[in-house]
Every structure is written in C-alpha cells, then in structure tokens.
Amino acid sequence: ILFHLKDPTPNIGSSLEVTGIALNKSDFGDYRYGFNGKEKDTDINFGAYDFGARIYDSRIAKFLSTDRFESKFPYQSPYVFASNTPIQAIDINGDSVWVTQSKKDPTKLTLHITGKIINLSGKEVNMNRALSNIMSSIRNSYGKNGFGHEGVKIGGQTFDVSIDANFSVAKKMDDVKDSDHLLVLATFRDDLKKVPRGITNEYGGKVAYLDADRFRGVLDVYFLSYGERTAAHELGHTLGLPHRSGWWNLMKQGEHGHRVSNKEIAKVIDRFRSGMQNLGKNYEKVGGYKYPRLDGITHPEENGMLPERYDLGRIVNRKVLHKAVVNSSKKK
C-alpha cells in the first residue's frame, strides 16, 4: 500500500514505516505532492503544481496565469510567486499574498484577509449594517485602529503589523470564491442546552457560523455588539488562534475582550508562512447545491487530545440551512 503524505517540508525526504519496512517517498516517482505541499499537475507538464486558483510552473518559478488581485500590486509582474520574496511570504492559493512587507520600511508588515459574509439563516438581517459592524470589530481587534500592533517579535526580528481586511456580502454561495474566508449567519438548533454564539469548522480553516439572532435584535445591534465581537472571535479561530484567558483578550470565551496580543499576531503570521492557513475548502457540494462546510476538526489545544472530526450539524439547523441555500441560489 502506498500512502501519499502531504509533507509540510516536501523537499526533504520523509519516510513511513509499514510492518517494519521503511519506505522513503523519494523512491516513488509518482508521489503526488511537492513544492509548498501542493499537488502535482502532470496533465500540463512535469513541473506544474496546482495551487487552487492558478497553476505554478516550478521550472520557471512563475504562475501560468495572472493574479486576480494584480491591481493591488501594480509594481510587480502578475505572474510572480510570493512577490519574489519566498523566504518572507508564500502564495496560499496562488491568488494573493497574505503577508506583505513594506519595501520602504522592512520592519512594517501587512496581514491581508479577504472574505464573504452570507445570511443563510432564513431570517431577515440588515446585511449592510452587519458588514459594517463586523468590519469595524475586526479592524479594531486586529489592526491599528484599536490597540495597534507595534513591536511584534517574529523569528528574532521586530515588526509593526497592520491589517488589510476586505469582506463583502454574498447573496448566494456561488458568489463565494474558493479562497474566501466565509462568515455564515445561520440558525442554530433550538434543542441545545446551551446555544453558542458562533462555531468554526477548523483552526486555520475558512468557515465560521454565527448566530443570526445576534444581528437582529435592537439590543444586539445598537448596544451589546455581541454579534460583531463573535465574528472577530471566530475569525481568530480560522486564523489558528485558540481560546485564551484575560478579560481584555478577544479570544477569551464570553462577551468581553476585544484585543489580540502581539504574540497572537506573530502566531497568525507564522502560520501563514508555514502554510497552515486557509486549510481545506470553504464549501461542499450536495445534490447539485453549494453549501458552507459543515465538517469540522477539533483543536488539540482545546481538548488536550489528538484532533478529532466532528459535525457542525450538531449546532447548525440543517433544514433551515438547506432551505436558505436553495432559495438563495435562485437569486440573480
């Protein structure tokens, strides 16, 4: 039996021992994964790798098509990999550089996050207001508008980190791009002993479900701000941040705390550089319809055990979600 392992250091030999026989992956010419842990695409050429949004040609160190975000980087070729700085940045899906470094001041980094917000709760929600409140919370928690992030220590160096967060409203799942982080306003099951405000499919994943009722009531919308705080908190989980203590910390479970520490920002960037962000797809197709992912993986820091798969359908009302997906798919 030949196991194809997605190796985080694919250019270094690794082995798998089966019944006392050591098998080195370099012994197999048809090994599926290579550079950056991406799958080879031999249909094009023997040096091509599938980054999701684009195909990368390792023979010339370039992508075979342009970056759809090329307008963000007018100073460079739209075919380059990781802004020609592969030591300091990586291309996650071949469509955008998530961590960029200022050419004028190398001590300044920018963390880029793009995504969509979609209402699949079957309830009326003012999505423009929800978007505005969520973006304000994200920028205040992660960026310069709140406490700021100066003096972030990463790999023995010190940086100032700002955030470039760009989310927009999606009317239907077809509006959601594969590379997007996805915040889903949903209806949670009413037979739960305790209804959570939000839940994330995977640490470093792309999908978070939020209780839509937190964006509907007068108290929630105008006074309590629980909905947008939950959105920023769950986004933190998709960036790989576990729960933390401290009343001021955004990642503390509860209703208070809006700050992300310098150590947490450093962890997010380290995960970007090591390819541990944007894990998996943000959707699944069932019966011809595109749904937000409902399969999840627990985090070892949360339960002290190995990661386990779990079903977000234990929290999210599947029937309401299905009806909302079907109805929204009819929208133009």
Short description:
The chain is α+β, with helices and mostly antiparallel strands and 332 residues long. 19% of the residues lie in helices and 23% in strands.
How does this model look, in words?
By secondary structure, this protein is α+β, with helices and mostly antiparallel strands. It has helices spanning 127-142, 218-224, 226-238, 262-273, 300-303, 318-328; strands at residues 15-18, 21-24, 39-40, 48-50, 55-57, 62-63, 99-101, 108-119, 152-154, 157-170, 181-186, 198-200, 207-211, 283-286, 289-292, 295-297, 309-311. Helix 1 crosses helix 3 (226-238). The N and C termini lie far apart (48 Å). Mean pLDDT is 79; it is low at 1-21.
Residue share in β-strands: 15-25%
- Major sheet, described briefly? 7 strands, mixed
Global Rg: 21 Å
Count of DSSP-assigned helices: 6
**Terminal Cα span:** 48 Å
Oligomer: single chain
* Counted beta strands: 17
Mean pLDDT: 79
Overall shape = globular
Give the topology string: H per helix, E per strand: EEEEEEEEHEEEEEHHHEEEHEH
